[in-house]
Structures are given as C-alpha cells and as structure tokens.
Design goal:
114 residues; mainly beta; 4-stranded antiparallel β-sheet
Length: 114
C-alpha cells in the first residue's frame, strides 16, 4: 500500500523560503518518476516539479529558477526547496508519482502572505 506523507509547509512572507519533505512508503522514490503537485483554492491540481528515476528534473515555468526538487534514495524521501516565494505560490502541496497513484497524502499547506 502506497503512503505519502508531506510536511514542511507554513506561513511565509513574500520572498521567503520553505523546504517541503515527502516520505514515501510502498513506493520507490528511485524507481519511479516522482513529482510535487499543488492545488490552490478554486483551481485544479497542477504539477510543479518532477524528478525522473534516472535523475532528469523538470519544472513548471511558473516556478523555474525558484524551486528545486531533490531526493534521498536511502531515506526514500523527496524534497522541494521553495525560494523567492510569491503570494500566487499559496496552495496545498502534494507529492506523488507520475502518473499519480490513487494514494494522495494529506498535503502540506504553503501560505505566502505579508
């Protein structure tokens, strides 16, 4: 059974930083392409960053140059470093594979506000 547990969100001022963590159980961070998704109020869930099994990373244009995805294959954990945060980055952030499993975690709330 796949279990994904996200953490690290919070309230931060514009321009601030956060580091999100996703601990995976029942799914290999190394063998699967993994991604960070986010869902803002009233909007559909969107993919913001992905990390392919072989190490290829991709970012949505809206976060390129500000977010960095990484992984620790020993800990089976996925990370997302968020820098230069903007109010439009406010959302619940989730991790999952690509394509996603049905086992979405509870997500972690990121709120960017002054």
């Amino acid at each position: 059974q796949v279990q994904l547990v996200e953490s690290g969100g919070g309230l931060v001022q514009p321009g601030g930083s956060l580091r999100l963590t996703c601990a995976g159980r029942g799914i290999s961070i190394l063998l699967n392409t993994m991604g960070w998704y986010r869902q803002a109020p009233g909007k559909e869930r969107e993919l913001v960053a992905s990390f392919a099994g072989r190490g290829f990373v991709q970012y949505a244009d809206s976060v390129k140059g500000r977010f960095t995805i990484s992984r620790d294959t020993v800990k089976n954990t996925l990370y997302l470093q968020l820098e230069k945060l903007k109010p439009e980055d406010t959302a619940v952030y989730y991790c999952n594979s690509l394509p996603p499993t049905n086992s979405w975690g509870q997500g972690t709330q990121v709120t960017v506000s002054s």
